[in-house]
Amino acid sequence: MTSRSPDKNDTVFKWLVTLMATGHFALVAITGRVRWEHVAADLLLVVLAWAGAGPRRFLRGAFPLWLTGMILDSQALWLGLRGTIHTGDLWDLEKALFPAPGGMIWPQWWWNNPNTPLDLLCGFAYAAYLYEVFIAALLYFFFKQDRRFESLCWAFFVVNAIGVVIYVLYPAAPPWYVLKYGPGPANLAALPSPAGTARFDAFFGISYFANFYARNPNVFGAMPSLHAAYPLMMVLVLWYKGVAWRVGTILFALLVAFSAVYLTHHYILDVLAGGIAAVVAFVAVRAVFARRDKASPEVASVSLPSGGNTRA
Hints:
Layout: H1 6-30, H2 36-50, H3 53-73, H4 89-97, E1 99-100, E2 104-105, H5 106-112, H6 116-142, H7 148-169, H8 175-181, H9 197-204, H10 208-214, H11 226-238, H12 243-262, H13 268-295, H14 297-300
Antiparallel strand pairs: 1-2
Helix pairs in contact: 1-2, 2-3, 3-7, 6-7, 6-9, 6-11, 6-12, 7-11, 7-13, 11-12, 11-13
Domain Inositolphosphotransferase Aur1/Ipt1: 111-283
Membrane topology: Multi-pass membrane protein
Subcellular location: Membrane
């Protein structure tokens, strides 16, 4: 059986991407959720697909980032599939495993004892955590033409997919919700909240976090913490670069993990679950790429310019 030619592969890829972008835009239009980001993302997808070999090479690697945005943005469509929403049980388990002074849990204790330096430090970490992924993926791996670009993008998609599946199977209220509404039956009318990050907004007189969380379609998506998952994944992805990178990425991952609890967005249990999700996604994607390289050694050994590393 002859393999499909590169030109034919390109044609199939271009039309597949165009179909998916068109289908996604039709979905958000039909469900009345169109925002400028949808128009920009779907249009960019089609433009990159048809703009030539260079942009298409970028798109082949970055396509999982678009898929990630699509599944996160579409969570509201799946809320009817959720299981029983957990409000007080995680609080009780957290209290048993990680008690704080005064019979409280740590998110509650920090809510009652905030301070401005930590508000600013943790607010910065919560604002920057996502950019770490994109800076590493786009500015470092892609422009170095390192094959880790594609594997990082797929690992990012997989960890988010794990998170969304768990949000459906085990919907859980964040600590700020329990502090505001109590541990009783879930209030499905509850609005998303910036929680502790509102203090960061107030300090600078901005509404960055207020606007960010206003778009959250799922109040009961706290377990696992994807905020904690992303920086830990970057520790794993950049581990090979040596001690300085390891120390820097570990410190940032710890800061984001602490911020998730300090800002009352997550329990320590959520943070630990996010770490497990990151490790599972990284190991799974790495194994798939290793098997693909073994099956297609000509792909793994291709020479890339600028000293690019060809290993996944």
